[in-house]
């Protein structure tokens, strides 16, 4: 099981870098769809998660949950 705070920090920093936003602009309630991530952003995020946590996220997670929040994504990674 992964530590939520570690996962949160990693994911938020990745998204902040990719989308050129400040980390403090992101919250657990931020929906991924509001960040206007493109397919390459999602792939980069999935590769980073696989590399750092050994977890494979399928594209269907994002397709079937268009309103998934950053907090929910991090919780999913921790489970």
UniProtKB/TrEMBL annotation:
SUPFAM superfamilies xref list: ACP-like (SSF47336)
The Carrier domain, residue ranges: 5-79
UniProt superkingdom: Bacteria
InterPro entries: ACP-like_sf, PP-bd_ACP
One Pfam short name: PP-binding
Protein name: Acyl carrier protein
């Amino acid at each position: 099981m992964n530590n939520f705070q570690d996962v949160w920090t990693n994911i938020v920093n990745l998204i902040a870098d990719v989308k050129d936003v400040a980390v403090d602009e992101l919250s657990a309630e931020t929906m991924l769809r509001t960040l206007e991530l493109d397919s390459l952003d999602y792939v980069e995020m999935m590769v980073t998660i696989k590399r750092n946590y050994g977890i494979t996220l399928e594209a269907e997670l994002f397709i079937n949950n268009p309103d998934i929040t950053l907090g929910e994504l991090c919780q999913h990674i921790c489970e």
